[in-house]
Amino acid sequence: MINLIKKNSFKSLIVLTYLSLLFLNREMAFKAIKNSTYYLIEMLQILPVIFLLIVAIEVLIPKKWIVKNLGNNSSFKGSLLALLFGSISAGPIYAAFPIVKMLHSKGASIKNIVIILSSWAVVKIPMLANEVKFLGPKFMLTRWILTVIAILAMATIMDKMTFKISYANKKISKLEVKSDYCIACGKCYRQAPQFFKSINKKAILVDENIQIDNENDKKLLTEIAKSCPSQAITYNI
Amino acid sequence: MDIFTIIFWVLGISLFIIALKKDKDSSTQAIKKSKSMMGNMIFDIIAVIFLIGLILTLIPIDTIQNTLNSSNTLVSSIFAAIVGSLTLIPAFVAFPLVGSLVDVGAGTVVAVSFLTTLTMVGLVTFPLERKEFGTKFAVTRNSLSFIMAIVIALVMGGILN
User: Fold this and answer.
1) Per DSSP, what are the bridge partners of residue A203?
2) Three-class secondary structure of residue B123 per DSSP
3) What is the pLDDT of residues B106-136, one digit of tens each?
4) Nearest Cα to A47, choosing from B98, B44, B115, B116?
């Protein structure tokens, strides 16, 4: 129970505040609940749409093709592809760190990785519906155009600088999960519960020192590592 | 439902059907993935929404308006950007949060600088970023984003007001 509260400290705090408010000032508590309900209904009207859009984009837009064409191409086309890649992805910006690092190691320029990171944060296509709903179409359109310009400017500035990005070749650990980046899609522990389990919604390894000899397991793990949406799983045969 | 929500519903459903027709297997995979991702987020979303309810009830609207729209737009947008930089939250919950502030009278400039830094600049996630990309990259990206957030906000305030 105490652990549960610790892990959900933010949610527990909200519940606690409401409970004490109910006790201290019943009228205010009801007013707060009424205010919340209004936004809750607004949110529920748009949430399923975001879900549908995320699924449709994932199936219809070939991410592999974008990655292949991104390369170290700093041209306008490369920037546009980077912008597209960031805008169609789901999850908070830190979920993008490992993916973007992987792209950089494959030759994507600093310019393009800055574009992906920034657009990932704040110009997401499925979220346009959300922004229009809560802030209006004029607000959305103006902000979108200005943000894209700002992102391109930022990327151009950073491209002129040099950065040392290290790829620490850590001990040859074959199967690894970086739980910090897990966005809890649940794919790994659903597909291979013998290797992965979830603790506090994040995926971790069942056995840190596991030896994988079975060919089928190797195939399965390679496939899972490839399809992890935030590239949090690494597996080297 | 307003007209834009209806448009997005039509768009969402049509694209979803096209995706299902095009590739049923990867659609099912994508559905499963998004479902558990959203399922894990839903309680955080609800918690933030109830936080909005609390803020709107406990803090008098006059106070919110006065704090957020102090006579100097630059000062108030920098203030909003600093608050937004402390933590990093997904765009998902950032929009209703910022929308509620606008509903009670926060100006465009404040709303935009808060929104941009909320999703782009994160002190909490800074260590993660530094670990992956090095100190120089993380510092440069976060500070440039911070400046851009204020610039975007001020320009937008000029256009929309």
Assistant:
1) A198
2) coil
3) 788 888 888 888 888 878 778 888 888 889 9
4) B44
Closest to B51 (Cβ–Cβ): which among A14, A28, A92?
A14
Q: Which residue has the tokens 């990206």?
A: B141
E strands within chain B? none
Inter-chain CB proximity A139 and B31 less than 8 Å: no
- At position A161, the amino acid (one-letter code) is M
Residues with Cβ within 8 Å of A92's Cβ and at least 6 positions away in sequence, in order, are A121, A183, B88, B89, B90, B91, B119
- What are the tokens at A103? 């792209």
Which residues of chain A make contact with B44, given a CB cutoff of 8 A? 10-11
Tokens of A137: 């179409």
Q: Is residue A9 packed enough to be buried (19+ CB in 10 Å), middle (13-18) or exposed (0-12)?
A: exposed
- Provide block-wise average pLDDT over 10 residues at a time, chain A (237 residues): 70 89 90 88 84 85 76 73 85 78 82 90 82 88 92 91 71 72 82 84 80 81 83 80
A199 - beta bridge partners? Answer: A202
Within 8 A by CB and 6+ apart from B20, the residues are B27
Judge: B119–A93 Cβ closer than 8 Å, yes or no. Answer: yes
What are the residue ranges of helices labelled H in A25-62? 26-60
Residues of chain A with CATH 3.30.70.20: 175-235
- Written out in words, the top-level CATH class of the domain with range A175-235 is alpha beta
Structure tokens of A8?
Answer: 């959900």
Number of residues assigned to chain A: 237
Q: Categorise residue A186: left if φ over 0, alpha if ψ from -120 to 50, beta otherwise.
A: left
Convert the pLDDT of each residue in B64-115 to its tens digit. Answer: 667 666 667 778 888 888 888 876 677 777 888 888 888 877 788 888 888 8
